[in-house]
Amino acid sequence: MEEEIEKEMKKKDSTLIYALIIMVIIFASIIFVPRLIPREIDTLDSLHEKNLAGKLSPDEGYLYKGAYSFVYYQESWYARLSNPQATAEYNVPFHFSPREVEDIQPVGAWNASAFNRFKAFYMTFNPKDEDLGFIAVSTGEAARVLTDVFGKGVIGACTTDEDTACVDRPIVDCDSTDAPVFYFSTEEETNVLFIDNCIIMTGKQEELFKATDRALYTLLGLMS
User: Fold this and answer.
1) What radius of gyration, in Å, describes the C-alpha atoms of the chain?
2) What is the mean pLDDT of the segment spanning 30-36?
3) 196 backbone φψ class: left, alpha, beta (φ>0; ψ -120 to 50)
4) What are the pLDDT digits (tens) for 1-15?
5) Residue 214 three-state SS
6) How far apart are alpha carbons 109 and 90 in whole angstroms?
7) Contact, 149 vs 81, CB < 8 A?
8) Which domains, ranges and CATH numbers included, belong to the chain?
9) Distance (Å) of CA 27 to CA 33, 34, 77, 110
């Protein structure tokens, strides 16, 4: 009798163990199997296609003015833009999308004739500026648009040679040349000023990025 009871208990224990094993397998499948299945990885082009089809949320992408596709990808807003000849398309990164800089109203009017007449532009700044890291990023972003989209040359310059880093650079400000000048400056006020052949972008840290993007959107014809 005792042997039969012992066998029955062992049988129940085995059933319980098998049930637990099955539950563990099911749980592991739910957790880990989806990770092993290859998922579709969005590229910039696929994101733009989804954006044009209205399949992205507003924080993922939108059509600015119903025509310009902006998508958020790897911490930047990318615009799909064509060069002036409409012979090539580019995915151009910006820190801020147009909607995020609409509150910046530029002062003055951009000198389009100077832009079209000259093949190279000056990027200048004061080497004693307190936020040179942010200025470096801003100049890089502006230079990318000028070279990639417009095919312009970019010349790095300084407003003074008081710093050793500027000894071999051209000394340029808004009054020293007829060529277009992009002047980046750290200021408390975030603004864009168009003064004849000069664009002055001011702001503090990330706000300078906003001013730079606002100026570039004007050059690209996306904003007035």
Assistant:
1) 29
2) 50
3) left
4) 555 545 555 555 555
5) helix
6) 26
7) yes
8) 105-224 (3.30.379)
9) 10, 12, 39, 63
